[in-house]
Amino acid sequence: MDDPQEPRWLTEEERRSWMALVSVLIRLPAALDGQLQRDAGISHFEYQVMAGLSMSPGHTMRMSELADLSDGSLSRLSHVVKRLERRGWVRRTPDPGDGRYTLAILTEEGWKKVVETAPGHVETVRRFVFDPLTKGQTRHLGDIGDRITRAIDPEGPCLG
């Protein structure tokens, strides 16, 4: 019988899968960030913030909701939005419906930046993530990502 005090060591197949995932977790963000820095002069997190705003009604979102969507803390988001404000791509204003909240709004210049940046970013995502996979593997990747995300944060937003 298994000793409950003994760690549940990974099998060889689990270890191989884990190491493959670790490699993706390290290399993919660096590759995406590198492409965006090189081609658009922005970080991947900055792009995620602006892209999230670009897909919301009126290009507007509460900062707290945007932090959830971009998977960043409110503090980190505040610093990034401040940088985006200085570049004229985002502005902040109190929420007229509830002054306890702050709205982030993508400006017209910010919208233009997203439209200009999106094709290169999507091509990079396609090249590194989807081109090497079959349609079935792509479907499985989505399912796997959802399952892992729910295991980490069952109450959190699932973007899939």
From TrEMBL:
PANTHER family: MARR FAMILY REGULATORY PROTEIN, TRANSCRIPTIONAL REGULATOR, MARR FAMILY
SUPFAM superfamilies reported in the protein's UniProt record: Winged helix' DNA-binding domain
Pfam family name, one: MarR
Source species, domain of life: Bacteria
Gene3D superfamilies: Winged helix-like DNA-binding domain superfamily/Winged helix DNA-binding domain (1.10.10.10)
Protein name (Swiss-Prot/TrEMBL): MarR family winged helix-turn-helix transcriptional regulator
Domain HTH marR-type: 18-150
